[in-house]
Design brief:
By secondary structure, this protein is mainly α. It has one domain. The chain is built from three helices and no strands. Helix 1 runs antiparallel to helix 2 and helix 2 runs antiparallel to helix 3. The N and C termini lie far apart (about 60 Å).
Amino acid sequence: MSKLLKVSSATAVALLPFLALAQALKSGTLDGIAGGLLSVLNSIIIPLMIAIAVIIFFYGVVKYVLATGDDAARAQARSLMIYGVVGLFVMVSIWGLVGLLQGTFGIGGGGVIDAPQVS
């Protein structure tokens, strides 16, 4: 299981430069390409990470059920279930918080904040 965590974290770290690249490509004709690339990354990475957390949880459930006599294996499976639930909770909470902040401050996906008008 640690191999899966290493691979998923390595993938996430490997894709981080695309976020900085998207900021650099905001000028000229590459703006549409960068926006499209960023939207594809957001629409693939978030559901993929949520799916990985759900798979880790259910993998822990299966290991817990199959390890009826071994207390060490049950403890390891229990920790997998906890990691899956905590990871899922953190990801969905941050996703919801970002959506709440976008709605509150009037920021559309990657837009600018509307300045208040003083009369």
